[in-house]
Design brief:
Elements lengths: L9 H8 L10 E11 L14 H8 L5 E5 L2 E6 L5 E4 L5 E4 L6 H22 L1 E4 L18 H9 L7 H7 L3 E5 L4 H21 L5 E2 L2 E2 L5 H7 L6 E2 L11 H9 L5 E4 L2 E4 L5 H5 L13 H8 L3 E2 L1 E3 L3 E3 L9 H13 L2 H11 L4 H14 L4 E2 L2 E2 H19 L14 H9 L3 H10 L9 H4 L3
Parallel strand pairs: 10-13
Antiparallel strand pairs: 1-5, 1-6, 1-7, 2-3, 3-4, 4-5, 7-15, 8-9, 11-12, 14-15, 16-17
Helix pairs in contact: 1-8, 2-3, 3-11, 6-12, 6-13, 6-14, 7-13, 11-14, 12-14, 14-15
């Protein structure tokens, strides 16, 4: 059935408003990406071949996953109740987890995903790497996945930022998707999470290498994102304006240049064109045709700010982490934003931060991580305070596992990082200089997924 055309701008706003849910219906969605490499020579896995990405997807079908095809090729997997497995442009594997009620369920999901992948990877001679930026290979060494939207982005990205292709091919993230109760609640959550994304970037800084050498950054992933596309990435100052709401975010999205339109299973190149023109039936790629809400939903996926809104909020500031870090990120944000008292305390923590110092902080944490400063305080000290607020929030949630443990223990790994003030990036640099003797190859074993 063909979706009806959008008749009024209010439909765009209503799309966001439809995401409002009572707290009893709030869920947690966790997404995490991994680099795939061939163990024999550590090279990035191509799409085709006996130990390529396609072989992984086909092997995962034994666990009940169903393939999603584009142009006759598997490019994703789905399974009812288990979310989806998708491909990033350079072959990074991403689990887009199911919406779950507790962090305990989230960590069971992560463990099951890891167990399935290890079975498949071992048989294929492949490994997975947990870092925010690929440490060894150049942009030219990377394969491209056969997804039509990536071909469009590949051509457009270099026109907007010098590191856009590196973002696509050589970065990985872990992110969390959370619900809101009302428009006012969304605004509060958006402001808190936008302000604190650089703090999470600092705690998750683990990408100090580029092409086998130290880059001068502790989070080169964050640096790459800052040089991707100013039209659709980064910090959104208007979130802190008095008129922030569903309509204001819709207005922002209308000004984000388009990438594509999908029709009959095909991607039509609309790179750089205007969704406002589309609403007026004046889109050059589809003259005379009006968009549908499906087009709007697609367009929302083509903006990449530090916090993104669909029918929920996405927290996008962390580099990919391994082991306990995959459970710690949702724990941090759930603790802050799914408890009313914690949310008030978190808002108070950031409410005096000026827009200019927040913008400057994004660049500072990419280089200095925990030692960067905001409003006269080290990020390390802000992280400690935010973690204390989150831990109290998780305890008040009172969601316990069968042994009686609440969700707050998932923050332990971040507490240790904040207390010491030393990031994994700095630890990796020390290993590189000392134990590894200036060689990057050991990172593929010591940071394996």
């Amino acid at each position: 059935m063909t979706a009806p055309p959008i008749r009024d701008l209010s439909e765009l706003v209503d799309f966001f408003a439809a995401g409002c849910k009572p707290p009893s219906d709030w869920r947690i969605g966790t997404e995490h990406e991994k680099f795939v490499f061939r163990k024999a020579d550590l090279t990035p896995a191509p799409y085709e071949g006996p130990n390529g990405i396609r072989a992984i997807l086909e092997a995962m079908e034994r666990f009940g996953w169903q393939p999603v095809l584009e142009e006759g090729k598997p490019i994703a997997l789905t399974q009812a109740g288990f979310g989806s497995i998708t491909l990033e442009p350079g072959g990074q594997l991403e689990l887009s987890g199911a919406p779950l009620k507790t962090l305990h369920e989230t960590c069971v999901e992560v463990a099951e995903h890891r167990a399935q992948l290890r079975t498949v990877m071992d048989a294929l001679g492949l490994g997975l790497l947990n870092l925010g930026f690929l440490p060894k290979w150049s942009r030219e060494d990377m394969p491209w996945m056969p997804k039509p939207r990536y071909r469009i982005m590949r051509d457009y990205m270099p026109t907007r930022g010098e590191l856009g292709l590196d973002m696509m091919l050589r970065t990985c993230t872990v992110q969390v998707n959370l619900d809101f109760e009302s428009e006012a609640d969304m605004v509060e959550k958006f402001r808190i999470s936008m302000a604190l994304q650089p703090v999470i970037t600092a705690m998750y800084a683990n990408s100090p290498f580029v092409e086998g050498k130290p880059s001068g950054y502790l989070s080169y992933r964050s640096h790459a994102w800052m040089h991707t596309d100013p039209d659709r990435c980064g910090f959104l100052p208007f979130v802190f304006d008095a008129d922030m709401g569903f309509a204001r975010y819709a207005d922002y999205m209308l000004d984000v240049p388009m990438y594509f339109v999908r029709r009959d299973g095909k991607y039509i190149d609309a790179a750089g064109q205007s969704f406002r023109d589309f609403l007026d039936c004046k889109l050059p790629a589809l003259p005379g045709e009006a968009p549908t809400l499906n087009d709007w939903e697609d367009h929302l996926t083509t903006a990449f700010p530090d916090v993104r809104m669909k029918g929920f909020l996405e927290m996008r500031g962390a580099g990919a982490g391994g082991g306990p870090y995959l459970c710690a990120l949702p724990a941090f944000w759930v603790g802050l934003l799914y408890d009313a008292e914690a949310q008030r305390a978190a808002l108070e923590l950031v409410q005096d931060w000026e827009i200019a110092e927040q913008q400057a902080l994004r660049g500072d944490v990419a280089r200095d991580a925990m030692q960067a400063k905001i409003h006269g305080r080290r990020v390390q000290d802000v992280a400690k305070e935010a973690l204390g607020i989150a831990r109290a929030g998780l305890r008040r949630r009172g969601c316990c596992d069968p042994s009686g443990r609440d969700e707050s223990h998932f923050l332990d790994v971040l507490d240790a990082a904040a207390e010491g003030g030393v990031t994994l990036a700095e630890d990796l640099l020390a290993r590189y200089t000392n134990r590894w003797g200036g060689r990057i190859e050991p990172i593929y074993e010591e940071c394996a997924y």
